[in-house]
């Protein structure tokens, strides 16, 4: 096997196995940073040995074995961990491999629990939002710092610093490697879901750069959501989030034209939507609603997405139901952005004047002052009311506020078209 082939194989195996590897080691070492360092040692060993010896029959087990030996060595060397060595000493071996079967079982028998613990640690609210996102993609997605940096259009050093700070913060705060219970679990779960949806949204509508979409981030968020749904199948909002992402992801192929320009929802070719993802999303939504009749914010958003997913044409969209669902969402999770989306739904259900009335109220909200979608929505409603000169000014303002080049081009073109028709 060539060196390049071996390295590609190592990288592929790492992407699959690293979350389990780090999770198992973190439970033993009680330190996420140390666990990742040990896992990285195993990765380096594979990079060095596999080109010469060939890829082992079970590469994941090989990585785990190397990481476990490194863990044992570190425990033995570190006097600070002497007490821990005593606690798990029965599981350590003195044979040539340095690992007894009991120690193997200690890691592998709890792998699903370990993954769930790692999810809650990586998304812990003690971390900044940027730190949670970077650490989650690093530990649970197996992405390199370079891959994360390219996805978010920031220097690799910035991502590296965020990850280092996050690990230090977790260690300093003494965050336990465990699944929270009771009210704490509910509070912490909302942080986990927020991180996953932040990753998805950055892929679905990039905040900056030359591309409107970053499908890799959508795929990674979906994978994490599905893993979480498997780990805690009785949490309705987990299934609600998965449903929301599945249905939204179904539109990815239709969200851009051949030249990469954005295509708005009502203008999309629905024949290009992925109907398998829609079916999966509807099934996840049904599961969420069966678990809890009192729908949470992600389940409500999934129900809104389902209205679009079920409509064969834009004209068949049930805007009355969407407006009602947004009213419910505004009660459960009130925010200016929800109100802006509700205004769009009201305009489609009851006419542009109804939507504009609410949008005009939102122009006084400080949180939306720099939000480009507010003037964008207002411009669209003004076009429908025939107030084209005002609409052109709103589109220009929206274009100046967005940091995404593709979106800026679309908004500028709309501003030019509105002024041309005056």
TrEMBL record:
Residues 188-288 form the DUF6596 domain. Keywords: DNA-binding, Sigma factor, Transcription, Transcription regulation. It holds the Pfam family DUF6596. Residues 121-170 form the RNA polymerase sigma factor 70 region 4 type domain. Gene3D superfamilies: 1.10.1740.10, Winged helix-like DNA-binding domain superfamily/Winged helix DNA-binding domain (1.10.10.10). The keyword Iron-sulfur does not apply. It comes from the Bacteria. Residues 19-78 form the RNA polymerase sigma-70 region domain. NCBIfam families: sigma70-ECF. Belongs to the sigma-70 factor family. ECF subfamily. This is RNA polymerase sigma factor.
């Amino acid at each position: 096997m060539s060196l390049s082939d071996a390295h590609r194989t190592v990288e592929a195996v790492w992407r699959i196995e690293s979350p389990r590897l780090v999770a198992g080691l973190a439970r033993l070492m009680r330190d996420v940073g140390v666990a990742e360092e040990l896992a990285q040692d195993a990765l380096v060993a594979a990079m060095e040995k596999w080109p010469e010896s060939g890829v082992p029959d079970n590469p994941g087990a090989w990585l785990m074995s190397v990481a476990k030996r490194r863990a044992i060595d570190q425990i033995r060397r570190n006097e600070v961990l002497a007490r821990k060595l005593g606690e798990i000493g029965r599981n350590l071996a003195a044979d040539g491999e340095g690992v007894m079967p009991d120690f193997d079982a200690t890691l592998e028998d709890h792998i699903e629990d370990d993954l769930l613990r790692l999810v809650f640690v990586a998304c812990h609210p003690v971390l900044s939002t940027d730190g949670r996102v970077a650490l989650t993609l690093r530990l649970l997605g197996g992405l390199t710092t370079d891959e994360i940096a390219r996805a978010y259009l920031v220097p690799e050093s910035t991502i590296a610093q965020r990850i280092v700070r996050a690990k230090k913060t977790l260690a300093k705060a003494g965050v336990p490697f465990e699944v929270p219970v009771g009210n704490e679990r509910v509070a912490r779960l909302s942080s986990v879901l927020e991180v996953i949806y932040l990753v998805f949204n950055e892929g679905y509508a990039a905040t900056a750069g030359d591309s409107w979409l970053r499908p890799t981030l959508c795929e990674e968020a979906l994978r994490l959501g599905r893993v979480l749904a498997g780990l805690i199948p009785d949490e309705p909002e987990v299934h609600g989030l998965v449903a929301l992402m599945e249905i939204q992801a179904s539109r990815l192929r239709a969200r851009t034209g051949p030249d990469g320009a954005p295509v708005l929802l009502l203008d999309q070719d629905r024949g290009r939507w992925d109907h398998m993802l829609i079916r999966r999303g509807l099934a996840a939504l049904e599961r969420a609603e069966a678990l809890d009749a009192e729908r949470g914010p992600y389940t409500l958003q999934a129900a809104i997405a389902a209205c679009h997913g079920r409509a064969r044409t834009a004209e068949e969209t049930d805007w009355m139901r969407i407006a009602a669902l947004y009213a419910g969402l505004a009660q459960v999770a009130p925010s200016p952005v929800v109100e802006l989306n509700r205004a769009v739904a009201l305009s489609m259900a009851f006419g542009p004047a109804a939507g504009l009335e609410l949008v005009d109220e939102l122009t006084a909200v400080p949180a939306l002052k720099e939000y480009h979608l507010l003037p964008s929505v207002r411009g669209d409603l003004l076009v429908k009311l025939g107030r084209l000169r005002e609409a052109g000014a709103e589109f220009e303002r929206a274009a100046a506020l967005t940091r995404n080049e593709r979106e800026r081009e679309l908004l500028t073109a709309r501003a030019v078209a509105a002024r041309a028709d005056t």
